[in-house]
Design brief:
alpha/beta; about 40% helix; about 130 residues; two-stranded antiparallel sheet; five-stranded mixed beta sheet; single chain
Length: about 130
């Protein structure tokens, strides 16, 4: 799986947020994923301290893994990789790729632990 979210460009680009890092680690642990199934690749890069969307960069990165599943946290990230997608849907098919849309990272951070687990439970079926 490739996981992405808007702030990932900050987290990988020298402005990491420990809360987001801990969230991603706890989600992977909760989902009981085997070692190495998740690659993180950004949909935006940090330029002069601001995020700039970069769909070309995302898809070039995805080409490295060609995973059948992309996990997209939040409608803003979805809009970068699939600009015409309906943000109200939680699953989009793109050729042989399933794009799973989950709540935005900041929304997940504001949830209680059990709410967060329910919000990502759909990924437990993706192996």
């Amino acid at each position: 799986m490739v996981w992405t979210y808007m702030e990932l460009g900050l987290d990988l680009g020298g402005q990491p947020d420990p809360a987001r890092r801990n969230l991603m680690g706890s989600l992977i642990k909760h989902l009981d994923l085997p070692p190495g199934p998740v690659a993180f690749w950004p949909v935006a890069v940090s330029r002069d301290g601001a995020l700039q969307s970069d769909p070309t960069m995302f898809w070039k990165g995805w080409q490295l893994w060609r995973t059948p599943n992309i996990v997209c946290f939040g409608a803003p990230a979805l809009k970068v990789i699939l600009p015409d997608a309906d943000p109200g849907l939680t699953l989009h098919m793109l050729d042989n790729v399933m794009v799973h849309v989950l709540p935005d990272v900041n929304r997940l951070l504001s949830m209680l632990p059990h709410e967060r687990q329910l919000a990502v439970e759909v990924l437990s079926k993706v192996r």
